[in-house]
Amino acid sequence: MKTYELLDTGGRIYAFEVNNSGLGRKGVCRVVETIPGTTIIRRPKFLSWFREEVFCEFDLDGQTFVACEPYGDNSRFWIGPEPPRWLPQTESVRDAFEAVRTSRVFRWLGFILGAFTVAVGLMVLSDADSGTDMLKVLPGLLLGAYLINFGLTGQRSFRVRRLRK
User: Fold this and answer.
1) All structural domains of the chain with their residue ranges
2) Rounded distance, CA 42 to CA 49, Å?
3) DSSP symbols for the chain
């Protein structure tokens, strides 16, 4: 994944940005989980894109880092220490994000297939005469919703994870 480095006056990286269309907010947390020695303090809440700028907070070697979407509707996520300053750990966090390879082909394919599945399911449902036909269509609608969610957000699960205490 392409990262955009933010440098201090000494030319050292103090934070970086990544495109938000590649991962989504929960995807950022999944990448952070792969970094050895990290502990996630806060994950995105329900409808976080609507109500919170800072959506992920994590600890790495005793230093607090945050991931946020400045101004609430930005094309990039800002990731760096809180408060912003140079730390040697920032480069290892950036390296983890650069190692991520998101496949837009699979996401677009999932979205198109999901939209088609939902559309066909709704057409069948509109012609249904009884409630038993709905039971036959419901699994297809759920699969279509799952694929649309994957296509839009890159999330592979609807699961809600609880914070570890």
Assistant:
1) 3-98, 104-153
2) 15
3) --EEEEE-TTS-EEEEEEEHHHH-HHHHHHHHHTSTTEEEEE-PPTTHHHH-SEEEEEEETTEEEEEE-TTSS-SEEEEEESS----THHHHHHHHHHT----HHHHHHHHHHHHHHHHHHHHHHHT--SHHHHHHHHHHHHHHHHHHHHHHH-----PPPPPP-
pLDDT at 165 over 50: no
Fold of 3-98: Double Stranded RNA Binding Domain (3.30.160)
Model pLDDT for residues 77-112, shown as the tens digit of each residue: 899 999 899 999 999 999 988 887 656 677 778 888
Q: What is the four-CA torsion angle of 136, 109, 4, 86, rounded to 10 degrees?
A: 40
- Give 105-164 pLDDT, tens digit per residue: 777 788 888 888 888 888 877 776 666 567 777 888 888 887 887 677 666 655 544 444
